Amino acid sequence: MKLITNSMNEPVEGKLTVWRTDCPLDDMIFELCANLTADGERLIVLDASGVFDPSRIGRAGGTVARSLHVVRTVPGAELHAALWAALQSAQQRTNARRVLLVGVLDHLYDRGILTRDAARALGRIKLVFEALTRSGLDVTVVCKTEGRETGARTYLASSLCAFAQEVRYWPLATQEYVDGA
User: Fold this and answer.
1) pLDDT tens digits for 98-153?
2) Which of 50, 73, 151, 171 has its CA 20 to 30 A from that of 22?
3) Distance between CA 132 and CA 127 in Å, rounded?
4) How far apart are CA 146 and CA 157, in angstroms?
5) Total-model pTM
């Protein structure tokens, strides 16, 4: 990874943000991409769940299409080595400072993986996220929670949220006002 520095050539610390949702990911991913590239900043999208639809980007504003680089991958145990190598390569080519990760935790809920192995894999993923943010990248992870039999693994997303600097929920809750009358 290229180390991101400021104008004084000092390293810049990135941030880990986790978005949790029970909604379909299509619209959410599209809107997140638009928000993350609104200021012209480049964005790398790592799509491990196959929900990213590039044809929608063509209909979006010009900054989204020009600022986006999509890396598709398949979730699983072999995901880590290939994923991080692809991310490093894309970041060096594009000089992107923002990364959106979709579906990278999905394989941890597979019933064919022992719970302790899923916990260890999550620990390794969190170490990688820490390294990415220390190198100056802003990392956004999308966790889909609906429609899953999580059983004893309900803590996985919560553990990642506890590790993150910011946790957000989609859709954004509307502000409720209570009339004190």
Assistant:
1) 999 998 888 888 888 898 998 998 998 898 899 889 989 999 999 887 655 666 67
2) 73
3) 9
4) 12
5) 0.83
